[in-house]
Structures are given as structure tokens and as C-alpha cells.
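BUG: 3D viewer hangs when loading the predicted structure for this chain

Environment: internal workstation, default settings.
Expected: structure renders.
Actual: progress bar stalls at 90%.

Input used:
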Amino acid sequence: MTPLHLIGQFVRERMGAIPLTVVRGLFIALPVVILIWVLSLPREETTPPENTPESNGRRGWTSNLKFGAALALILQIIIYALWA
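C-alpha cells produced before the viewer hung:
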């Protein structure tokens, strides 16, 4: 066996020792943390400036990208919680 085989076997054994409930919790916790971060972003960071082609003259809830991102993350959290 080469040293790389020994390192790989060591890592595999350590990863196999982690309980799956912990892995599932971390798998669900990551999108939750990202959701909290997205919701805490200031409105100025998630909407295009007033007089740019990106704004397209739109104002209102559709121009704020937080809502779409939050919806996608909530759906992802639900799916992971039910089927992970």
C-alpha cells in the first residue's frame, strides 16, 4: 500500500464514523444559514439601481431578489427535510 492509500483509508474511516443524523442536520442547516443571510441583506444590495437597464423600470416586490432567493431556499429546506 502506498502512503496515499493509507491516508485515504484513514479519511474514509473517520467519515464513516460520523452518524448520519449529524450529516442530515448539517445538510439542512446550511440552506437555513444561507436563508438567514439572504434575508438580512439590505434592500439596496438586492435591487437594481433606479436608472439602469437592469431595473427595466420595474419597482416593487418583483425587483427585490430576496423574495425569489428566499422562496428557492425554503423549498430546498423542505425537500431536504422530507427526503434527506
